[in-house]
Design brief:
- There is one protein chain.
- By secondary structure, the chain is an alpha+beta fold.
- The chain has 7 helices and 14 strands.
- Helices cover 24% and strands 31% of the residues.
- It has a single domain, classed as 4-Layer Sandwich (Metallo-beta-lactamase, Chain A).
- Bound molecules: fe (ii) ion.
- Fe (ii) ion (FE2) binds next to loops.
- InterPro entries: MBL_Glyoxalase_II, Metallo-B-lactamas, RibonucZ/Hydroxyglut_hydro.
- This is MBL fold metallo-hydrolase.
- It comes from Tessaracoccus lacteus.
Length: 206
């Protein structure tokens, strides 16, 4: 069986008493025996319900923003895996998860699951450590908050860079046009749908 991609939608709020207004996509890639989890987001139970009795090979983090990582440590403990993230986002991890450990997810790192290689590509700009996960065999890329339908992710923080995220997008746009883009929020798109708009995005500046 080839690897399948599954989306788990979870929601939460930075204020625990507030309504669950932030929706995130958690992505699972795997077969009936093993699975990789990308961005556990808001609800470890919801993710583990979809994992079922499969072995979790790795927990990969696209970037250190709270909504993507808040259940990463809990999920990792429950399945016996240390989450992996680019170390340039360590400062964001510490804000949300304190001294909980993570392992490095370096540019070019490859994780094998269900006969498929998942390759980390450092795509900074939204955050310094933002990383996309390429699944070439599946014709898919998991972009976190780096690329959405209609443009790049926000670069409004001091540690963000619009110029840098545009460079990251130029790299992603060398992928085949039919590559499916699975972002950290909302709907999926394709490289071929988004790439023609890069100049518009540069001109508008966001
Ligand atoms: Fe983000």
């Amino acid at each position: 069986m080839t690897a399948l991609i599954t989306r788990v939608l979870t929601a939460g709020n930075s204020d625990p008493a507030g309504p669950p207004i932030h929706e995130n996509n958690t992505w699972l890639i795997g077969d009936e025996a093993e699975v990789v989890v990308i961005d556990p987001a808001h609800d470890a139970n919801a993710v583990l319900a979809v994992v079922g009795d499969r072995r979790v090979v790795a927990v990969l983090i696209t970037h250190g923003h709270w909504d993507h990582i808040r259940k990463a440590a809990e999920l990792g403990h429950r399945v016996g895996v240390t989450p992996r993230m680019h170390p340039a986002d360590a400062f964001l991890w510490r804000e949300e998860l304190g001294d909980e450990p993570f392992d490095e997810l370096a540019d070019g790192a490859v994780v094998e699951v269900a006969g498929t290689g998942l390759k980390a590509r450092h795509t900074p700009g939204h955050t310094p450590g933002s990383t996309s996960i390429l699944a070439d065999d599946l014709g898919a890329v998991f972009t976190g908050d780096t690329l959405f339908p209609g443009g790049p992710g926000a670069t409004r923080w001091d540690y963000s860079s619009f110029d840098t995220i545009i460079e990251s997008l130029e790299g992603l746009f060398t992928l085949p046009d039919d590559t499916v883009v699975h972002p950290g929020h909302g709907d999926s798109t394709t490289i071929g749908t988004e790439a023609p708009h890069l100049e518009e995005w540069i001109e508008r500046g966001w």
